[in-house]
Design goal:
The chain is of the alpha/beta class and about 260 residues long. Helix content is about 45%, strand content about 25%. The strands form three sheets. Strands 2-1-3-8-7-6 form a six-stranded mixed β-sheet, with helices on both faces. Strands 9-11-10 form a three-stranded antiparallel β-sheet, covered by helices on one side. A two-stranded antiparallel ribbon has the order 4-5. A hairpin with a 4-residue loop joins strand 7 and strand 8. The longest helix is centred in the middle third of the chain and has 22 residues. The model has no long low-confidence stretch (mean pLDDT about 90).
């Protein structure tokens, strides 16, 4: 099972104040690794909702990986660590490595003149409280450590990353090797090709796509413009496989077959 659940936490995402670019970034990265993102959720900073969604996901054992973004900072509304602890039914506790990360980062920021003091206040110390059994993930850009928890009962890796896109992306590069390990063990491959076809009306294109999908079982996504723009339609043809070279070979054959169908219309 190589399925992934992405959860973005933050009222600002639901109100439209902030665009959820984190989920898009993660989905693309994970898909290119051959993993399958089955669901992306955007949730408010509300304990009951977040805990309920996490609990259901772990009980159903549908996911190999859960990635949560947002809610790791020093303010009162940053509660992802406590949400996760409640879900796992474990206490929050200052993690020695976590407090070292927070301390080190504030010392660096102070030396660079980016903060007024390196003192570890209660708000800063809050970021070092992790669910018991979790491990911190180093944050090379911000100050809040990420969280990694290997939930054995559901065979699920849980990762919590900051909501600030630059921090999240840098921290993802730290944990990405773990996803490569899954890819290697399960021999996962993903391949996609873009193709621009001479159609401006998606309804006329649809029968050709149905034939290709039926023959090769590929995923084809059409990206039409509005009728007024009158531009040709772009297609994305993709396929995942656990057999070496099959993903690329299948996509290329599907692409060739579609071109032949269109030329013979």
């Amino acid at each position: 099972m190589n399925q992934v659940l992405i959860i973005a936490i933050g009222n600002e995402l639901l109100s439209g104040k902030t665009v959820n670019t984190n989920s898009t970034f993660l989905a693309e990265k994970l898909t290119n690794l051959g993993l399958t993102v089955k669901k992306i959720l955007t949730l408010p900073d509300e304990r009951e909702i977040v805990v309920s969604e996490l609990t259901n996901a772990l009980i159903k054992k549908n996911y190999r990986i859960i990635i949560i973004t947002g809610g790791l900072g020093p303010t009162w509304d940053d509660s992802t660590a406590s949400f996760l602890a409640e879900t796992l039914n474990v206490p929050l506790k200052i993690h020695p490595e976590g407090i070292n990360i927070v301390t080190q980062r504030y010392q660096e920021l102070y030396r660079n003149g980016l903060v007024d003091t390196e003192k570890i206040t209660s708000a800063r110390k809050k970021m070092a409280y992790l669910p018991v059994g979790a491990k911190p993930i180093y944050n090379p850009v911000g100050t809040a450590p990420g969280i990694y928890f290997d939930h054995k009962p559901s065979n699920c890796w849980i990762f919590c990353l900051p909501g600030v896109p630059k921090e999240m992306q840098e921290m993802f590069s730290i944990i990405e090797p773990q996803f490569h390990d899954i890819q290697k063990k399960e021999h996962l491959e993903f391949y996609e090709e873009n193709l621009i076809v001479p159609f401006t009306d998606e309804s006329l294109l649809a029968p050709f796509l149905d034939q290709v999908r039926e023959k090769f079982n590929v995923w084809i996504k059409s990206l039409p413009k509005t009728y007024q723009e009158g531009e040709n339609i772009m297609l994305i043809i993709s396929f995942s496989s656990d057999k070496n070279g099959e993903a690329k070979n299948t996509v290329l054959k599907a692409k060739e077959y579609l071109n032949l169908l269109i030329k013979s219309k």
